Amino acid sequence: MKRKNANLTARLIQVAFCAALLFNGAQSIADEVTATNSQALAIVVHKDTQVDNLSLEELRSIFLADQQFWPDRQRIILLVRAPQSDERDYVLNRIYQMSEAQFRQYWIAKMFRAEVPRGPKIVFSTDMTVDLVVAIPGSISFIRADQVSDDVKVVRIDGALPSESGYPLK
Amino acid sequence: MRLALLLSLAIFAPVYAADEVTSSGSPIDLSQPEFNIMGFGDISYITNDGSDNDGFVIGQAVAQLSASLGHSFSAFGEFTASAKDSEYSFEVERMIVKYDFSDHYKLSAGRYHTPIGYWNSAFHHGAWLQTTTSRPEMLKFGSKIVPIHFVGVLLEGNVGANDLGIEYKAGFGNGRHSNIARAGDAGDLNGDKAWMLQVNSRPRNIYGLNMGLGVYSDEITLPASPNIEERTVSAYIAWNKETPELLFEYLHSTHESVADSSNSGDVDAWYAQAAYRLSGKRSNWKPYIRAERTRVDDTDPLLGAENLDYDGGILGVRWDFNPYAALKAEYRNEEFDSGGRENNFRLQVSFVLTKL
Q1: Which CATH architecture has domain A41-157?
Q2: Is this complex scored with an ipTM above 0.90?
Q3: Pick from B68, B129, B158: which is nearest to A109 by CB?
Q4: Angstrom distance (rounded) from CA B331 to CA A16
Q5: Which domain holds residue B213?
């Protein structure tokens, strides 16, 4: 009798979970949105950083703070735009593949696991981003490609610059 | 639109103030000490069938302090206050000082959550961080199945820059206390230190996948009985994205008397958990399910008499009604070795206090 009850409970749980997945699947098709920006996003680093090219996977690893040092052992300083910017929305969608809430939870968990001593530095504008990338050795951030200046180095992603075909952050 | 932007800046600017950096035109030195504080808490209402002890339960209040003391040196502390029958007990859960040589070598010392499997070193004490209201039974705080804490040194890092994303954690330190639910905080009780090695892979081109294998070894000293050797192997696979979120973890331990090798027994324990973050307007909701089982040989010299066999199934939903708080409703059907089968329902609100 006890085993029968356990089997029934397990079956009920399976049915309920499958129903939730099916219901959500139908809804997600209807709700699908694209958050891409027609303007390419440039990945910029401090001029002394000894990196010219990153794969998209390497870039994601850096933005997730799974990679925290440049090849010359300089600490990577990640600068991220504050919420309510198109650039941030694009990076969360394309690189992190996270919602705003998931992004916040990711960094809280990362700090709570003692994997990083601090979260990303927050910047509030393109000008501020450029100023700080210029001023902070080891820094990396992102700005719209048409706002890049000569003060920062633009990193190739998968071998391509923002103006070239095959650039993955368009 | 402009009003909305101004309002959002007014709301977020103070929140991010501590992480904001300013430029004066000259290089900025970020090696100065920097401190972060976080807190976690939870309150539950639990009702059990056949029990008169229904009621509210204050979960652990957790304080986390971390300090970046230069580009490579950092310190971390996690402290809890847990409600008991007539008082609160305070505990130093983790206390770590760490030096990062590179991504490949990070050396630390202190008190850790033992790197066995996935959950124990992924979620720690903040109920808000985990999908469910509580940890799996085999990994609950105070568990005798898994040595939840260890005190010693840990070397960790990644193995080269490869597409497999291989990472390792190698630890050496004090084993369990004679109260086997506790770590040897004041020193090891015998000459044989505990050691552990965990290797995991997070393939770069399969973003979200995490798989790991680990071994743990210790010699345990009990009052008035021969020492017992403990050998544990663990394996896990986790899919960290929330559409879906999948966790499976398995652990096998062997306990053998040092004085008599025929006096031995095994432990097998596993859990499997699945969750799915809904989309669109319902993206704050995440239904979840978990099944788990623990089996301990009656002949096990360490745990055979503890009545730790367990079967459990839970079904619940998490509602993130606030960016920093969640409400979870959970039905549980559990069968304990000592207490028979029971159903219970729990409602839990959990939160995080942080400036992120």
Answers
A1: 3-Layer(aba) Sandwich (3.40)
A2: no
A3: B129
A4: 12
A5: 33-353
